[in-house]
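B., you asked whether I could sanity-check this one before it goes into the benchmark set. Here's the sequence:
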Amino acid sequence: MTDTNTPAAGAAPQQNPLDVLEKLLEDTKKQSAAAQAGDTPSVPAGPTEEEIAAAEKAKQIAEYEALKQAHALEDQKAIEEQQKVMEELQHTPQYQARVDQEADKEVIKQGVKDDQDGLEIRQLEKKKIVVNE
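And here's what the prediction gave me:
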C-alpha cells in the first residue's frame, strides 16, 4: 500500500493546497491589475492546467483526510459510549435476574443427572458359542 503523503519517485514534492491556491489568487490579481492599467502583463500567463489540477487534487486529498479523521473520532466516541452502556447493563436487576436464572438451570440439570444415576438399563451381553463340527 502506498503512502499518499509522500511524493512518488521523480515527481515534484506536494505543496500545501492552501499555498497553491493563494499563489493562484495572487497571480490572478496581478493579471487583472495589469489588464485594467492597459499594460501587457509581465508575469507569465498564469498557472498551467497541470498546476491547477494538482492543486485541486491536493485540496481534495486534504479534505478527504480531514473527513476521514473526523469520522474516526466520531466512531471512537460511539464505541466508547456503547461500552459504557454495556457495563451499566451488567448492574441492572434484569441482568442479575438473567444470570441467576442461568445458574439455576445448571443446578437443575445437575440435579436431574444425579437423580438418574443408577436408573440406567443394562443389557446382558450375548456370547456366541462356536460348535465344533
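One thing to flag: The chain has three helices and no strands. Otherwise nothing jumped out at me.
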